[in-house]
Amino acid sequence: MIWQTARFSIDLTLPKVMGIVNATPDSFSDGGRHGSSGSALRHCEQLLQDGADILDIGGESTRPGSPAVSLEDELARVLPLVRDAVTLGVPLSVDTYKPEVMQAVLDLGADIVNDIWALRQPGAAAVVAAHPRCGVCLMHMHRDPQTMQMAPMAGDVVTEVLSFLELSALDLQALGVEKARIVMDPGIGFGKTVEQNFELLAKQAVLKSAGYPLLAGWSRKSSLGAVTGLDVNHRMVPSVAAAVLAVERGASIVRVHDVRETVAALAVWMAMQRVD
Fold first, then answer.
1. Can you give 24-64 as a three-state secondary structure string?
2. Where in the chain are the domains?
3. pTM (2 decimals)?
4. What is the 3-state secondary structure of 191-224?
5. Are 89 and 52 in contact (CB under 8 A)?
């Protein structure tokens, strides 16, 4: 399976590791560590050295309860980094829901739009549809970052997430976006209970049956803390375990903070697959 993006046709025969680059002061795990564009670019380079296949840059925290960031602030955080990171020779994703940011980063040469709102913001789908090749990741989110954990989802989480993502993908294809450009993300932690998150992992094959590549984002999430008792700064091991379990259940891309450790764990998993 190929994920078509602006500059790269990404072969998903083997799982790909997407390294997280938070150019924010307040992200739940590493907020403020890479606040300057120089520091963030060095982090990009380190993630590539650690084995990342894709970089994912974000300029707005989406942790539960996080305040929205103005367009001007997000552009100021993201654009200088994107301008430099597009020279690194790997697919570059930008995590944003604002159509103005999408347009600006695509104009700079970014490859993928990674949208927690699944292009539901006015004008967002039009920006992606107007681009001839960019990739897009559509994520399921219940409510919004400010309120999503105050009243998590009810009912059959797998059926609802699958239905939402399928309809979002079909709506985008109706605008002329090829299916090969689309990846789905069930949105672990975005308005779901701990039990619902693990149900999405256990039944990930149902989501994969829709026929789109899956991206799994378990890294350092609070559900891992809930079952291990570990705080966010000590969740590397459960994060790696969740990434491997997601890949084993069909995820094509894992979005992670701990790239080196995840790459190493997946190398063990792939060695076993070759023997089978």
1. CCCCCCCCCCCCCHHHHHHHHHHHHHHCCCEEEEECCCCCC
2. 2-275
3. 0.93
4. CCCHHHHHHHHHCHHHHHCCCCCEEECCCCCHHH
5. no
Give the Cα separation of 28 and 140 in Å (integer): 19
Q: Which CATH number fits domain 2-275: 3.20.20.20, 3.40.1190.20, 1.10.3720.10, 3.30.450.40?
A: 3.20.20.20
Spatial separation of the C-alpha atoms in residues 101 and 249, rounded to whole Å: 33
Rounded Cα distance, 153 and 196, in Å: 8
**Angle CA 110–111–112, to nearest 5:** 105
Distance between CA atoms of residues 34 and 84, nearest Å: 14
> Phi and psi for 262 in degrees, rounded to 5?
-70, -40
Residue-wise pLDDT tens digits, 219-257: 999 999 999 999 999 999 999 999 999 999 999 999 999
Q: What residues act catalytically?
A: 221, 255
